[in-house]
Amino acid sequence: MHKPKIKICCISSLSEAEIAVKYGASAIGLVSEMPSGPGIISEELIRTITKEYYSKVDTFLLTSRLKASEIIEQQKFCGTNTIQICDRITHDNLILLKEKIPKIKLVQALHVHYENTLREALDIEKYVDAILLDSGNQKKEIKELGGTGRTHNWKISKKIVASVSVPVFLAGGLNPANVKNAVEIVNPYGLDVCSGVRTDGLLDELKLKQFFEAAGYTK
What CATH number is associated with residue 172? Predict the structure, then answer.
């Protein structure tokens, strides 16, 4: 089993970022305003955390905005080196993002429900640096754009990983008990975890340790 990159999402403080990095995270997720879900923090706090950890790990700004101009303004204030787009966005806006902020990596989240997610991935891959497969639901009255704690059909995720040319992160309901199986089935470039390494909403060091070990990280 290869050792995937691990992104710890929903980081809510400098101390949580420190813990995530201590256990081996290569990226941290910083959640800006969303219609629902855990881990939302102010852009001021995202900026503070990013300044401290920019040179140590990849810093992901999770955004629900869909206009390139608004996303660029948000990123420039927050200072992250990566943008995770959590909702569907047009190709024109992705092209504009690449033109205006070419040094910032773009990661498109796709919410896996049916086989058409594979078509979505193939359609979007040339516009982004990576794809993240999650278990939200954009069709709900209040959109779920991540942080649901639910798994999805990993067989579809496996097909996507095998079919696209960009790195793929696997998210959605991962935890210490299932991550080894997830990696063996899907073979993703990276893993994204939020609730699976938390207790009462707080980052849990024991669960973090167990998660990294199950994912192939050994001291």
Answer: 3.20.20.70
